[in-house]
């Protein structure tokens, strides 16, 4: 039987919300770990949902919340800026007897040697190493990372993959690079799949995608719908990587958010960084069906 008591950190974020909805709809008992003084008021009222305000820097505070709710699985959906600060939550999970920890992975292939070197990915790799060390010391404690590429619906709405509202796009490496991308609802399904298949997903990264596509294919779907010509510019991701590193190295004087997005783009649209997961997917195990071309076209058309 899968674990029924689940704790979720970052439940009010772009990814946390669909994961929370999927968990309560699947009748899991969910504890939302919310920062003291945070925005827990945004969380829904649901009989299966408990809210615990915690100090995310305090292992004691986190352990108490997990013990009080008998949490067996912890899911971390902390913001990108906080993915390097998950150790207190990991330590608390070990102390509270949690069986499975799902870190704030959700993105590029962190197992790819080039991706590992990107500043946005390095904290994920460090977290995995820490989780492995804790698992070796505590055999009942395990983890699973989830790699899902770009969030298809969110990134289209945010104008990251394409700017549908302006019919404009920056085409990375020509716009014909095939990249894995996943709907937020399918990422949530993958989380449920991990909980339900813990032995098969123990201490590794699983790979899922709703589909694999190119920027130019998506633009083609838009043109078929409204016939509007697009304004495009080309950008080489190696050039973007260097520019992002320059900003990153400026510290507080640089554009950290822009650099972070730049690194994510490099990992998502550069073939050598493993941006196409098609050869090593866990979709079938985790219950994720891939979108057909007609489905992808419908998503684009719905956002125009």
TrEMBL record:
Pfam family, one: NmrA
Molecular functions per Gene Ontology: oxidoreductase activity
Domain of life the protein comes from: Eukaryota
Gene3D superfamilies in alphabetical order: NAD(P)-binding Rossmann-like Domain, UDP-galactose 4-epimerase, domain 1
Coiled-coil region(s): none
Protein keywords: NADP, Oxidoreductase
InterPro entries membership: NAD(P)-bd_dom_sf, NmrA-like, NmrA/Isoflavone_reductase-like, PCBER-like
Domain NmrA-like: 4-226
Keyword field contains Oxidoreductase: yes
UniProt keyword Transferase, yes or no: no
UniProt signal peptide: none
Protein name per Swiss-Prot or TrEMBL: NmrA-like domain-containing protein
Organism: Penicillium angulare
Lineage: Eukaryota, Fungi, Dikarya, Ascomycota, Pezizomycotina
């Amino acid at each position: 039987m899968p674990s029924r008591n689940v704790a979720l950190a970052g439940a009010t974020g772009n990814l946390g919300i669909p994961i929370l909805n999927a968990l309560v709809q699947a009748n899991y008992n969910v504890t939302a770990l919310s920062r003291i003084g945070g925005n827990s008021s945004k969380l829904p009222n649901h009989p299966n949902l408990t809210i615990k305000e915690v100090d995310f820097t305090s292992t004691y505070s986190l352990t108490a919340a997990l013990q009080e709710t008998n949490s067996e699985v912890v899911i971390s959906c902390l913001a990108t800026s906080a993915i390097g600060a998950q150790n207190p939550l990991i330590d608390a999970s070990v102390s509270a007897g949690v069986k499975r920890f799902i870190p704030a992975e959700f993105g590029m292939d962190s197992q790819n040697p080039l991706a590992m070197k990107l500043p946005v990915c390095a904290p994920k790799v460090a977290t995995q190493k820490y989780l492995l060390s804790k698992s070796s010391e505590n055999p009942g404690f395990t983890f699973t990372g989830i790699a899902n590429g770009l969030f298809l619906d969110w990134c289209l709405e945010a104008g990251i993959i394409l700017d549908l509202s302006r019919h404009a796009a920056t085409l990375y490496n020509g716009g014909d690079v095939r990249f894995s991308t996943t709907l937020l609802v399918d990422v949530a399904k993958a989380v449920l799949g991990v909980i339900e298949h813990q032995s098969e997903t123990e201490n590794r990264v699983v790979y899922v995608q709703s589909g694999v596509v190119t920027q130019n294919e998506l633009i083609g779907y838009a043109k078929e719908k409204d016939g509007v010509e697009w304004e495009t510019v080309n950008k080489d991701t190696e050039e973007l990587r260097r520019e992002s590193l320059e900003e990153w190295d400026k510290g507080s004087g640089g554009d950290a958010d822009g650099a972070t997005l730049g690194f994510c783009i490099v990992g998502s649209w550069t073939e050598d960084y493993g941006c196409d997961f098609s050869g090593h997917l866990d979709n079938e195990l985790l219950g994720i069906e891939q979108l057909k071309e007609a489905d992808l076209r419908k998503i684009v058309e719905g956002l125009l």
